[in-house]
Amino acid sequence: MPGAPDVGSYYGEQWAPLAMSSLSSLFSYSPPGTAKYAAALASPSQQVSTTMPELETEGELKTLPAPMTIETTAAAAAAARSPEIVKVRSVWAHNLDEEANLIESLFPSFRLAAVDTEFPGTVHRPSAPAYTLTRKQKYALLKKNVDELHLVQLGLTLFDAGGRLPDLGTGGAARYVWEFNFREFDLRRHAHAPESIALLRSKGVDFDRTRRGGVDAAAFGPRLRRWLRAGLGRAGLVTFSGAYDLAYMLKMLYGGGGGYRLPGDAATFEFVVRAVIGRTLYDVGKMARHCPGDMRGGLERVAGKLGVRRAVGEAHQAGSDSLLTSQMFMRMRERYFDDQDALTAVAGINFGYLNFTSCEYT
């Protein structure tokens, strides 16, 4: 099993100045005012993506400072369960600036964000059963995989305290989420898991198109930093078993095009993620294990147990999965975490067990 580099040299030489520089610039920025929403565009084509390993909770992490109170009315909860027509806006190099500006204009009204990442599987796997791994060993595997692999897609869902999505001036006739396609992964020369590539191909992913027209990750990093300063996920950033999601976001922030390496140990990784990406983090996979009954399983299985139906697309599509994650968060919030202290108690990063037996969500 691969090991992590020495944290002392890594953190001292690379991360300390980088983290402090990022922190000083990140929290001195004032969010812009609400811009006029752009007119809705035609429904973009959908791209499907591969899976990420399932993670389970291992022990309790330190809780974060109390997040903003999220109030849910019955009407808003119904809207979260049964949204209007939802469309996925597919983002490529040619429309990145337009879509990025539109997204940024929505932050003052939609202060929660759910994310999902899709990547070419995992190439470094444990030699022992996953449940026997220590937290240190699990992070070492995560680091090794994320350091060597390239992101395929990032899904982003913006929503408000009632679970409503942006309608972009349609008067509620349609709601929107986003799916970013990246160009860095080259099937001919980059590491990947064959079963994950087979899944992507079986669902129509065109790797030639992503190479030709995908977003440049190196150019996307500064845009993502700007979003975080402007208020992306200010009331909460939501993932499902999201350690890999957060790791890929961190990689995008500081050199998504290559050459970047994650921090050497899990504690440093958590510190930087909380400081730079989000001070209030919710992991729906972790929350599920604090709900009554058996809520074990992957994204699709837990959604079914909660009675949450996918509003658009299908599994392994980043935009669709980010939306499903947001809907599951709202359902859990309504049913099991209506007390703010209870919600705060389950905030944090989930490093649980890694499931390498299949490229499918369990």
UniProtKB/TrEMBL annotation:
Its main location: cytoplasm. The keyword Transcription applies. It is found in: Cytoplasm; Nucleus. The keyword Transcription regulation applies. One of its GO terms (molecular function) is poly(A)-specific ribonuclease activity. Its cofactor is a divalent metal cation. GO terms for cellular component: CCR4-NOT complex; cytoplasm; nucleus. It catalyses: Exonucleolytic cleavage of poly(A) to 5'-AMP. Keywords: Cytoplasm, Exonuclease, Hydrolase, Metal-binding, Nuclease, Nucleus, RNA-binding, Transcription, Transcription regulation. InterPro entries: CNOT7/CNOT8/Pop2, RNase_CAF1, RNaseH-like_sf, RNaseH_sf. Ubiquitous transcription factor required for a diverse set of processes. It is a component of the CCR4 complex involved in the control of gene expression. Belongs to the CAF1 family. This is poly(A)-specific ribonuclease. The lineage of its organism: Eukaryota, Viridiplantae, Streptophyta, Embryophyta, Tracheophyta.
